[in-house]
Amino acid sequence: MKIITSIDELRDQLRGQLRTAFVPTMGNLHEGHLSLVRLARRHGDPVVASIFVNRLQFGPNEDFDKYPRTFQADIDKLEKEGVYVLFAPTEKDLYPEPQEYRVQPPGNLGDILEGEFRPGFFVGVSTIVLKLFLCVQPRVAVFGKKDYQQLMIIRNMSRQLALPTEIIAAETYRAEDGLALSSRNMYLSASERIEAPHLLKTLHSLKHDIRSGRKDIAELQKIAMARLVERQWKPDYISIRKRCDLQPPNTDDLTNNEPLIVLAAAKLGTTRLIDNVEI
Ligand code: PAF
What we know:
6-stranded parallel sheet; 3-stranded antiparallel sheet; binds pantoate
């Protein structure tokens, strides 16, 4: 595996490659990331991964400085997966001057749910993803469904800007007890780790309620939030949305079996977890 930090060198290395499959990451790789790499391999060749902890997508009080950086272990894992190039730029390589041109997703998708609780997050994500796409020029790129809103924003960006990159969605990779794998799980204490799968249980129970015909969505969401609070969680949101645009469904949508999804973000101790379940 070639480890490349400069954009020019990356372009030289990938010149003429028409079927590159790309997996962007912020490192601290776990099985979830590796499942994205395996899916990428099924859709293209060579496989290129990137590791870059993107300051632009962290809020002032978020964990940019303490975000886990495990570069050597990450290299070993990607090498074992047969990744051809790891693009691991420094901040100077990628942001040699302040990044003043940015990608602004539409408010109806970018300022709701995660965007409401993490202002500027999706501007930071969209900007870095577009920039990485311009560096790597992949034919396909793989994103996990765990970050469902991110996946939709990137997919819409790619479509609306006519990027030559197809966005592939990967299923959420879960531990045996159901907890979605995330680099931030390592912040959980032992007792919080035992409690953490309860978020998914809550989402499954909402899915069950909707599937059995309940239409009182606001009430269901309120009860689910209150139950989490009773168990010492601090939920930001639990929200049933339409899968096509992440807007709240109306009664007709519920009657017409519009594909739905329930998304949640909640803090357990100081660790913020997100998850979702398609209904
Ligand atoms: O999902 C992530 O790890 C990041 O948001 C991404 C897509 C690598 C952009 O920094």
